[in-house]
Amino acid sequence: MFGVSLTTNEAIGVTYNGLLSLQHRGQEGAGIAVVHDHHIRCHKGVGLVNEVFSHQKLDALPAGRIALGHTRYSTTGHTSVENTGPFVTEYLTGRVAVAHNGNITNAKDIRENLQQHGLRFGATSDSEVVSSLIAYHITKAQDTVAGIIEAAHSLQGAYSLVIASSENKLVALRDANGFRPLCIGKNETGYAVASESCALDACGFAYLRDVQPGEVIVIEDGEIVHEAIELTKCANACDDGGLCLFEYVYFARPDSVIDGLNVYKARQNMGMALAAEHPVEADIVCGVPDSGLVAANGFSAKSGIPLVSGFVKNRYIGRSFIYPTQTQRDSAVRLKLNPLSAVIAGKRIVLVDDSIVRGTTSERIIGSLKSAGAKEVHMRVSSPPFLHTCHYGTDIGSEDNLIANRMSLDEIRRKIGADSLGYISIEGLREACGECRLPLCTACFTGHRGGSCDKGSHVSKGVLEEKDAPI
Ligand code: AMP
């Protein structure tokens, strides 16, 4: 997500560049909404940012000072333009555009309530529900900011939001746990908010700070007009989470800083911890491009085993996991990485990747290393075994698909074809991310999601519709 409130009419171009820098966060679809003359115009589509926005499409949008954009990584709803953000909702006196990162666990209940009030829905995404709920509360409160805050009070789950209103406000908001990152930057033309600081850098905004958990920031005419903690955690700790640890492990770009911790540094620490926890005699260390590279660097630094680029990556193919069907994912892995037999043949290799989820990627990569002549492959993973479904924005449809759930360590090792296998411990991972200012959510590794809630169990209610191919 990326949004700007500027004093110049360049909001669309800046937002487009911001989305290009955030492409790694979602590759299913992209959209930009712009505020123009008390209206909101939006273009969105399925595909990568530069596929959705040709020059003509960008030029067809009216110039404006406020814009926001989104790249889609789906957790609910199938892949279609209807389910792509941002979502624009019209109400009696205006419009709002909403970009959402996270997963709303009570979306189904909210949607049913709103339907009873006569609201109609065209999509199956939880983010559309958020947009409609905000419009509903703005109408009720007859005030944009009060309506947004009221709407946020009814949301459960994970949500970082960027909202634009037709009355020229840009609002950045983060749930009280801070599950998903959100930061703010400034330059001489105004403010930008972004899921990651790498997008602020790329667009020439100096990083100011992260939006705090529960905070609502309102920007108008290029100035901050409101910044306050408006949302608190549920008293029953029903959503007792924190920043998603997987942001440091996998999602974020290593040139981003999230809640005080540099992602590169976190991954380097993870690699060093792995080398200390699971040492092995080997000739070279190779990282799986891209998200295993920095941890491989850390492993090499700690173990003294030289780091080698073991693969040529076809950079024109996106992140294989994000493709929504297994068939698409399988062929993407094969197309994406080719081992460099010149450096691999006859070597004992430490292969470092950030995670094993279903096991598809590691099995294929180890197979390709062995056929390129590797003597031994020792797999090292910079996250603990992924055991539980995530309800807060990581797309894991069912626990049956998680290899660590079905197999013992040695079974996994044999299945993926490794000569040895070592995962970082949860304590090692926490320590590697020790400089993060927020508590960390480790629910996908531990299954701990906080206590019970008098509103009823919030977990799993957000499924509005199964995705095209449940994972
Ligand atoms: P798998 O083949 O299912 O074991 O997937 C593991 C690969 O997918 C690793 O190489 C990761 O870099 C990547 N990955 C891990 N978690 C995610 C996620 N939540 N979304 C997208 N990609 C992921």
Task: Annotate the secondary structure layout.
Blueprint: E1 2-6, H1 11-21, E2 29-36, E3 39-46, H2 49-52, H3 55-60, E4 66-72, E5 87-91, E6 94-104, H4 107-116, H5 126-141, H6 144-154, E7 157-165, E8 169-174, E9 183-187, E10 190-194, H7 197-202, E11 206-210, E12 215-220, E13 223-229, E14 243-244, H8 245-251, E15 257-258, E16 261-262, H9 263-277, E17 284-287, H10 293-303, E18 311-313, H11 326-336, E19 337-339, H12 341-344, E20 348-353, H13 360-371, E21 376-381, H14 403-406, H15 409-416, E22 420-423, H16 426-432, E23 440-441, H17 443-446
Parallel strand pairs: 14-23, 17-20, 20-21, 21-22
Antiparallel strand pairs: 1-4, 1-10, 2-3, 2-4, 5-6, 6-7, 7-8, 8-12, 9-10, 9-11, 12-13, 15-16, 18-19
Helix pairs in contact: 4-5, 5-6, 9-10, 9-16
Describe this structure in words.
By secondary structure, the protein is of the alpha+beta class. Helix 4 (107-116) packs across helix 5 (126-141). The strands form 6 sheets. Strands 3-2-4-1-10-9-11 form a 7-stranded antiparallel sheet. Residues 451-462 and 466-471 have low confidence and may be disordered. 31% of the residues lie in helices and 26% in strands. The protein contains 17 helices and 23 strands. The site of adenosine monophosphate (AMP) has 18 residues, from helix 13.
Comma- or semicolon-separated keywords:
binds adenosine monophosphate, seven-stranded antiparallel beta sheet, elongated, disordered C terminus, six-stranded antiparallel beta sheet, alpha+beta, single chain, 471 residues
